[in-house]
């Protein structure tokens, strides 16, 4: 059984509350408050479906209550009808300008009250249904989008020695590092940008579909010529993803995937490829992806190496070895890695190849 909608009546005159209660209680649940501050506490606790709000009250008046409702919850979430005296057009105009959905004048006429409350309840129910439908549609689109992205990413997995677990790990590593950085630099990296990078992370190596198996699966170090060919997986990936964008439109995840594919091997000191970008010229998501990719390569078995322990991988990233140096990484992402690498260890152990 669906619950009846809740109406909160806010008026400093008990007789007005009694009248409105008698008018409404057969159709709605009714709560009441004689003062503005208590009304805000009730709204915080019970989230009414509609508020009937007196304009003139001692202390916190109706205008201030309306302003705080709008600031805290939004007037689409909690609609407000103003209660005003006769011949108070200024009050009515001010309330409507502030976002109230309607007004009812005193003394109250039961049929008018029921009609105006009924209209606003019907509108709110309609808005709520639309919101739920939009959320459902959005979630379905996101799931479809993720499936499409991961299908593209698996193209590279089928050719390379890496596995589907690598794709899922890189997403989770990106989430952990991205969240840590977003907390430290909220003005620079938003949660929405982190989420976009997480969704796009599986696309960073899609260009490997254009690299020969002889190179991808070679059980040893590549020659200089072979490594030059391997480097082109970045630009091949860009071409593949640009084609996908041309076919499907400017999908934000695909556009972020282009960025990650192009720049995830660039290094902070300018010694990376394919463009040799330095420092701030490297997009932020690619700086994070670079460390994610290096970490997972170190702790995973590859045709040319055995898997490193987590401890050794951390030491290589933070202190360096003959191939990897700390100056290759954005200092901020190194600092974040120091604080979250144990979480990354747990991700790898739970999702080993």
Protein described:
With 353 residues, this protein is an alpha/beta fold. The protein contains 14 helices and five strands. The two termini are 49 Å apart.
Strand content: 5-15%
Question: What is the fold-level CATH name, i.e. the topology of the largest domain?
Answer: Hypothetical protein af1432
CATH architecture grouping of the largest domain: Orthogonal Bundle
Whole-number mean pLDDT: 86
Share of helical residues? 55-70%
Q: What strand order characterises the main sheet?
A: 2-1-3-4-5
Number of domains: 2
End-to-end Cα distance, whole Å, is 49 Å
Shape: elongated
Biggest beta sheet summary? 5 strands, parallel
Number of strands: 5
Radius of gyration: 30 Å
In CATH terms, the superfamily of the largest domain is Hypothetical protein af1432
Structural class: alpha/beta
Low-pLDDT stretches are none
Number of helices: 14
Would you state the CATH class of the largest domain?
Mainly Alpha
Order of helices and strands: EHEHEHEHEHHHHHHHHHH
List the helices and strands and how they pair.
Layout: E1 6-10, H1 14-24, E2 29-33, H2 36-46, E3 50-54, H3 62-72, E4 80-84, H4 89-98, E5 102-105, H5 110-159, H6 164-184, H7 191-200, H8 213-216, H9 224-231, H10 233-248, H11 252-263, H12 284-299, H13 310-319, H14 331-350
Parallel strand pairs: 1-2, 1-3, 3-4, 4-5
Helix pairs in contact: 1-5, 2-3, 6-7, 6-12, 6-14, 7-11, 10-11, 11-12, 12-13, 13-14
